[in-house]
Structures are given as C-alpha cells and as structure tokens.
Amino acid sequence: MSKQSKQAPDPQVSLELSRRRLLGTVGAAGAAGLVVGGAGGALAVSGGEQAAPTALTTIGSTEVPFRPERAKHQAGITTPLQANGHLVAFDLVPGADRKAAAALLRRWSRTAEELMAGRAPDADTGVALDAGPSSLTVTFGLGHSFFDRTGLQKRRPVQLDPLPDFSADALDPKRSNGDLWIQIGADDALVAFHALRALQKDAAGSARLRWQMNGFNRTPGATAHPMTSRNLMGQIDGTNNPKPSDEDFDERIFVGRDADQEWMRGGSYAVVRRIRMLLDDWEKRSRGEQERVIGRRKDNGAPLTGGSETTPMRLDQNGADGLPVIPANAHARVAAPESNQGAAMLRRPFSFHDGYRDDGAPDAGLLFVCWQADPLRAFTQVQRKLDRGDALSPFLRHEASGLYAVPPAAAPGDYVGRPLLEG
C-alpha cells in the first residue's frame, strides 16, 4: 500500500447529490440491491470511494414533466392517481398585491419544476434526498377572491362564480375556498410531504395557510392488474370517468380557444369537496342494500343490469316486479351523463382519514376533486340532480368546498399564471 493516504471524501459532496442522480435503470427493479435506506443508505461510501447510486424501483423513477412538451394543461389533471396527496389553500397576506402574487407564483413554479424532476431546491430540508420523483405532480389554481386581492376583477372568468348552495351542504368556511390552491400528488409519502413543506416555505411573507387536507389512494402495483380505485365504502369509484381517448374529452375537461379570458385557454376548473362518509351507518347495510344504493355490484363494479365494470348501464331494464333493476335513486343512475344532459367531469379524488370523532365514528371519506371546462355545466348540474334524490346522500356529509381556475401549464421560462398577472 502507498504511504500516502487517500483523501477522505467530502461528506457534503454526498449530501449534495441530487435526487435525480440516484435514478437507476428500471430494468434493475428486481435486484436485491434496490432497497434504499438499508445499512449504509443510498449515499454510503466504501473504501474511501463514493459508491454507485442505488437503482430505484419503477415507482421511484417515474417522472411527470412540469412543462409538458405537447399538452397545454398542468400536470396532476390527467396524470394517473398517485398513492399520496395533499390539498392546500393559501390567502395572500394583507398588503400583498399583484406584483407580490406574481413573485410567489414564480417561486412556486420554479420549486415545483425542480421537485418534479427529482432535484432538490435551494435550502432543501433533505426529507426526500434518497428518493426519485415518484410521479410527483404540483398543480396550481386561483380562487374567486384572488382576483379581488390583486385588482384583476375584470379578468375573472364567469365560470369562477361561487357554487350555489346545496341542501346537503354543511360547509366549514375555514376549510373552504382560498385565494390560491395547490394539489400535490406522489407515489411516495415523503416526496409528497417534501413538496408540501417546500411550497409552504416559499409562501412565507406573501401568503398564509388557510387550510390543508391529506389524502391517499391505493399504491400502484398493489393489485394483480391495473384497475379502477376503490373508495372507503369499498366501492369501485370512477368507472364512468371520461377518458383522454374520447373524441370530446378536451372539450369537456379543458377550456377551449373561444374562451373570453385568453389566459385560461388550455386550463381547467377544479371543484374540491371534503365529503365525510358515515361509515358506521354504511357498514350496517347488507351487501345487497349497498349495491342497490350505488346501482353497481361491489365485487367488480358491474351495473346491476349485468356485464362487467365497463358495460353500459341499461337504465330502461325492469325486473320481474316491474321496477327498474337499477333503482330510480341509485347513485350511478342519478349521476350518469345520460341523466344529466351529457354532463361529465373528470373525477380525481383522494380518500382521507383524520382520526376519530368524539362519538367514535371515523372522520374519513373522500377528498373529491373533479375537473371540467365549465363547472356550471358539469359539477353544478350533476350535484343539483344528486341533491334532489340520491340514495347515497344519507351516508355522506359535504363539509368543505372550493372552486379554482387552474391556468394552463407554464411555457418554457415562464411561471404558472404569468399571462394573467403580466398580460
């Protein structure tokens, strides 16, 4: 051996390894060396030399671009459901004007782009240092009050008019609305929290937290084959969602070129509802009762008129008793586009569980998020119909609500909302 000792590696060099550099080949996903965070960790060094980065599994290495090459809309709308989510709303602080709002959205856009690419932003906390992008998406929206705070009332779209009151609403104003809204989704809980924390820190001095909600879905790969997610009632949820392959998908979900407000063209409108499920009451019902309430089988999501999950409902089919096989007030019937003049929205929810209430009932349910080109013709139309007679309504409590204009994705070098704030 040489008498001259090798120089010890600078630990800071290891710490500054970007999350991006830790990505390995997806083909190595079955290797025993895939466990990140085991003895020594992904950044371990051996014999005075930096070890090769540990390859990530498919889940960790999946990246969703912040600035899509072709699509005009932000990520997190048509992106497949992630396992973990955070919904958060902010209000601009007193005195924060249009210029301050623009600076904040510029910071947020820069941070989101870094995080979604698997890179650590400045002054990073290191929470997700050893993780890949994990399908992280960050989506930004603007509430009705944002335009009052920034003096942009004349550029507020009519589609952002407040939602009407519904008879089933029991809304908490402290957990509703907000000037600014962010949706965060990722397939790793630490990656999702890391993004939430980074964006909250970016808001300091410009906006204060109004409310925050945490959600989850089934982890990709947890089932034998890809399938529609289930909600906390055990029902397959989202069968009738519009599909990007549908001829009229963009027309239904995204704002078109003829929109009065040019800055929203290519964007969408998000309706957010915190819907608590009365699970104790629901679980006392027999499976047959539950299926009649929904109008679909619980095991495979097929309509009660037969077939598979994707078989169209036969709303005109009657049973031997002369009554509709799918009851007149079944949720699937009442919410169907056929019952609402073709109205459709893209549902992209998260489940939530926030502990237990004083009576011992679970504080759990659905963080309902739906996307549409025009809320009045989609969510509002369907919810009005549900409000008049939905068999599922007695098992639900709508406790928070929000409506947000979600601008298109930022162009290269731009930030989300720049055409509005600087146009």
Automatic annotation (TrEMBL):
<dbReference type="GO" id="GO:0005829">
    <property type="term" value="C:cytosol"/>
</dbReference>
<keyword id="KW-0732">Signal</keyword>
<dbReference type="GO" id="GO:0030313">
    <property type="term" value="C:cell envelope"/>
</dbReference>
<feature type="domain" description="Dyp-type peroxidase C-terminal">
    <location>
        <begin position="228"/>
        <end position="409"/>
    </location>
</feature>
<dbReference type="GO" id="GO:0033212">
    <property type="term" value="P:iron import into cell"/>
</dbReference>
<dbReference type="GO" id="GO:0046872">
    <property type="term" value="F:metal ion binding"/>
</dbReference>
<dbReference type="GO" id="GO:0004325">
    <property type="term" value="F:ferrochelatase activity"/>
</dbReference>
<keyword id="KW-0456">Lyase</keyword>
<protein>
    <recommendedName>
        <fullName>Deferrochelatase</fullName>
        <ecNumber>1.11.1.-</ecNumber>
    </recommendedName>
</protein>
<keyword id="KW-1133">Transmembrane helix</keyword>
<keyword id="KW-0812">Transmembrane</keyword>
<dbReference type="GO" id="GO:0004601">
    <property type="term" value="F:peroxidase activity"/>
</dbReference>
<keyword id="KW-0575">Peroxidase</keyword>
<comment type="function">
    <text>Involved in the recovery of exogenous heme iron. Extracts iron from heme while preserving the protoporphyrin ring intact.</text>
</comment>
<dbReference type="Pfam" id="PF20628">
    <property type="entry name" value="Dyp_perox_C"/>
</dbReference>
<keyword id="KW-0479">Metal-binding</keyword>
<dbReference type="InterPro" id="IPR006313">
    <property type="entry name" value="EfeB/EfeN"/>
</dbReference>
<keyword id="KW-0472">Membrane</keyword>
<feature type="transmembrane region" description="Helical">
    <location>
        <begin position="21"/>
        <end position="45"/>
    </location>
</feature>
<dbReference type="GO" id="GO:0020037">
    <property type="term" value="F:heme binding"/>
</dbReference>
<comment type="similarity">
    <text>Belongs to the DyP-type peroxidase family.</text>
</comment>
<dbReference type="InterPro" id="IPR006314">
    <property type="entry name" value="Dyp_peroxidase"/>
</dbReference>
<dbReference type="InterPro" id="IPR048328">
    <property type="entry name" value="Dyp_perox_C"/>
</dbReference>
<dbReference type="Pfam" id="PF04261">
    <property type="entry name" value="Dyp_perox_N"/>
</dbReference>
<dbReference type="InterPro" id="IPR048327">
    <property type="entry name" value="Dyp_perox_N"/>
</dbReference>
<dbReference type="InterPro" id="IPR011008">
    <property type="entry name" value="Dimeric_a/b-barrel"/>
</dbReference>
<keyword id="KW-0408">Iron</keyword>
<keyword id="KW-0560">Oxidoreductase</keyword>
<feature type="domain" description="Dyp-type peroxidase N-terminal">
    <location>
        <begin position="74"/>
        <end position="217"/>
    </location>
</feature>
<keyword id="KW-0349">Heme</keyword>
<dbReference type="InterPro" id="IPR006311">
    <property type="entry name" value="TAT_signal"/>
</dbReference>
